[in-house]
């Protein structure tokens, strides 16, 4: 239900975005200092929590999360396991990976129990404008404006990666993975090319085949099989200690790239893909790239590096995303005002994830130079929430 809350002239803390990272922050913040409830407002165009996140999971028909059950928005790491006591079959081996429905129900429980739906104001923030001496002005798509002392940017800030041969997307037969909604498609008899080697490409392949298609899954390198998208050592001091001790931001960026190493498939998904390959419903094309594509009479004709031409009804690009902070429309006035260094598309933030010199915090992948390669994951959301909460509740950490 969209909140009818009136927009005030001023709010102490504005949080932009109502996804998993924002939900994690609000739960941690109000657990630490409940009286801040009246001083926080969350802005999201849907007016509800987790709208985009839910849609993406349902559109790709994802059965369970990739993160273990201790990674969730509640401050108590064991809260999800307790919630799942009567639903043990929805925790998947080997590390109690929560089922999608279980995780959604748990988040709904947190939202309802803590009255968090009342914090959301339904609006699109179009601009963050620095004001002297210390405040910010948020400009909304409705033309309204609100002044705020502190801002947390918790929106998706990545840009989709498109292969060089893609001149423009041509829905519905050439789309990026985030535009695919398996629930609405009848693919019986179609031949689909899915490009990418990450978990998204695997989910889309399984979904398309279940709906009657045959699939070619093409990856520019050998498919990798990993339970998590980074080594579990990045969740604790094993790897983070040396990362945080590294003073060179360029070196940190290289460490992040090496740790993530492109996309990977979980053992469970890989097992299913290999079975479908044996059944003749899936063709894995590894170490292969498209060099040219053209569309003629409802068919795509693809030329690969080996010179072969192949024909498809649809092409889905599961080619991931990249971070380009300098292109972030909300922050374009911020970087220049505060002279923020940007390294390979990632901003240099202070230890509490603030833009240096400003009470403006950033969560998610854009905070990777501080948080490491798990910044965009639920574990990164927890770490970011702890840091930002500390800065918001301790007066000694406020900027002068």
TrEMBL record:
<protein>
    <recommendedName>
        <fullName>FAD-dependent urate hydroxylase HpyO/Asp monooxygenase CreE-like FAD/NAD(P)-binding domain-containing protein</fullName>
    </recommendedName>
</protein>
<feature type="domain" description="FAD-dependent urate hydroxylase HpyO/Asp monooxygenase CreE-like FAD/NAD(P)-binding">
    <location>
        <begin position="14"/>
        <end position="155"/>
    </location>
</feature>
<dbReference type="InterPro" id="IPR036188">
    <property type="entry name" value="FAD/NAD-bd_sf"/>
</dbReference>
<dbReference type="InterPro" id="IPR038732">
    <property type="entry name" value="HpyO/CreE_NAD-binding"/>
</dbReference>
<dbReference type="Pfam" id="PF13454">
    <property type="entry name" value="NAD_binding_9"/>
</dbReference>
